[in-house]
Design goal:
The protein has 294 residues and is an alpha/beta fold. It is 51% helix and 18% strand. It is built from ten helices and eleven strands. The strands form two sheets. Strands 1-3-2-4-5-6 form a six-stranded mixed sheet, sandwiched between helices. Strands 8-7-9-10-11 form a five-stranded parallel sheet, with helices on both faces. Helix 7 (171-180) runs parallel beside helix 8 (197-207) and helix 8 runs parallel beside helix 9 (222-231). The relative contact order is 0.07.
């Protein structure tokens, strides 16, 4: 299906995906506001992916995807996972006629903005779209600690403070998540049972050099602090730590993210320029050496 394109401007681009034409038409009717939204329709996950690719290449990225959870070939959850490949990943709202508490928890743990049960009400959908768009501007945080209760408690404290937080209870799981999704800020416990905190940070810094990484532990040794400095870890917080202190420090880190990233990118650019200059200098030295010997 094609886009219901109207006048261009600052309207948000919303893609609605449902293999049931009646449901597709019904939901599009709920959000089709010419002044506020530019609506795209897809009858399958594959068609949705093509629309997202096309808009992404045209630098008109989709802002929000509203997808049915139960579709053949590529279902709603699989579609959400495929969107992790894009730099500008749209916020995702899942619709389902059979939403359970367990499925809602799983979806939100993976980063889906909302799960809404069919039939959908207009006021509910508009509110969820607005919330999903607002969430795009939130910084994504991944908290890693093998103590599940502590990780869950810290994550919930940060969510209540308005942050967009996910958590993992093992290094391997955290690395899988880091490879699939982009996070702005990482809190990583040094003492993980499988993949060590140091090794996890090394992998994350290779994947995302501009990600801000904060280490956590009871007390870091001198050797660990030296390793953290070499890896470019931004700060270290000692446990146990109150929820109030965690929220306070997180607010500070988020405020400093933009300047930190600029610094990382500038450092990378300087290193690249230095490398190019070194190559040129070595080439000139080699030419001079050859000329002197002939």
């Amino acid at each position: 299906m094609n886009t219901e394109d109207k006048t261009p401007g600052s309207r948000r681009r919303v893609l609605i995906v449902d293999d049931n034409k009646r449901h597709l038409k019904g939901i599009s009717g709920l959000v089709d506001d010419g002044d506020k939204y530019q609506v795209f329709l897809a009858e399958s996950g594959q068609e949705a992916i093509e629309i997202i690719k096309t808009q992404h290449m045209a630098q008109n990225a989709i802002d929000v995807v509203i997808s049915d959870s139960h579709m053949p070939v590529v279902n709603g959850f699989q579609l959400f996972q495929k969107l992790a490949l894009y730099d500008h990943k749209p916020s995702f709202i899942l619709t389902s006629a059979f939403a359970t508490d367990a499925s809602v928890r799983k979806a939100k743990a993976e980063g889906i903005a909302a799960v809404v049960e069919k039939p959908v009400r207009k006021e509910d959908l508009e509110r969820l779209i607005d919330q999903a768009i607002e969430a795009q501007h939130q910084k994504k945080i991944l908290l890693v600690d093998d103590h599940a209760l502590l990780a869950k408690t810290y994550a919930e404290a940060l969510r209540q403070a308005g942050h967009f937080v996910f958590y993992a209870v093992s290094g391997e799981k955290a690395l899988q998540m880091a490879r699939k999704f982009y996070y702005d800020l990482y809190f990583i416990d040094l003492n993980l049972p499988d993949l060590s905190g140091i090794e996890l940070m090394r992998n994350i810094k290779q994947l995302r050099p501009d990600a801000m990484v904060i280490s956590l532990s009871g007390e870091a040794s001198v050797r660990e602090r030296e390793q953290l400095k070499i890896l470019g870890v931004y700060d270290h917080l000692e446990k146990p730590m109150s929820q109030r202190r965690l929220r306070h420090m997180t607010d500070i880190y988020v405020q400093k993210l933009a300047s930190y990233r600029r610094g990382v990118h500038e450092a990378i650019a300087r290193k690249e320029r230095k490398t190019i200059w070194q190559v040129l200098r070595e080439a000139v030295d080699e030419i001079i050496r050859i000329l002197k010997t002939t």
